Amino acid sequence: MKRFVLLSLASVCLGGCMDAPPPLGDGFVVHELNASPSTTHISFFDASLEPVLRIESGDVVRLETATGNPRWFENAGVPRDQVPPELYSVYEGYELAGRGDHTLNGPIFVNGAEPGDVLEIRILAVDVRLPIAGQGIGSRLFPGEIEADVSRVHWIDLVNRTVEFAPGVVVPIKPFWGVIGVAPPPEMGRVGSGAPNFFGGNMDNRDLGPGSILYLPVHNLGALLSVGDGHAVQGYGEISGSAVETSLRGEIQVFLHKNQELEWPRAETPTHYMSMGLNPDLDEAARIAADEMVDFLVETRGIDRETAILLCSVAMDMVVTQVVDGTKGVHAMLSKSVFTY
Q: Is the pTM here over 0.85, yes or no?
């Protein structure tokens, strides 16, 4: 029988009840982790990486992540004096000309974490910290239609919190980190961060913004958590292959739950439970997301599987997270309001 991690600390126990963690401010340490050549790794996960920070369960990490290789901006026509100087220091020694979207802060070692545990990552805050951003078209949805690489520089209006795509076409920002993941099992070696997996990673899930909670299975001592790939705004699907990619700042609080096995990432927002399905086949990703939610209901709400399926058919929304990372993403959202107990 599967065992599942807590999805709502206040009301639901999975695989045995756990005490709700203390609120922020009860003596936990706050750490600073800014992007630099010594605190980041670019475009991969690897269990052999040395941690750049060690924390205890319940500690808070204030992050400043970087997205935007200065060479990419210069090649796109941005004068050097308009590129924020801090980006040059972050990408010092980075020889490639790409945007460097997956410049990941970490890994963060959580003391006491070991395989078979679960990390709870609370997104306390996340926001844009620099006005410059990049976007491109590299999508599998338009094969042969786009003959040359398409790149565009965006300037974010930090006062009005918008991005202008064309005169009179303005999109409000909704920042989140596209990549949040732990290191994969050691036997997998170095894994590219382009596609999400059971350890999290490049989920590109716009619903994992401030106030959300992400649950990830642990596969290594210390879990080795990494965060990055800042998005100022992204639609469900991310059909061009990129969001408005930019540098973010924010805070996360990390809790360790011992002996709470989890097969796939799960999450919750203040209003919804969330299950996730990840697979190269979109149908299979949808099946996994639905199955995970049904199993969650059976395990935690004491209802039979048939009733859970019927409930999900009328109260659960299936969302296409993204379709461009090779491994497609679907996440299922079930409102907490349907439960009166």
A: yes
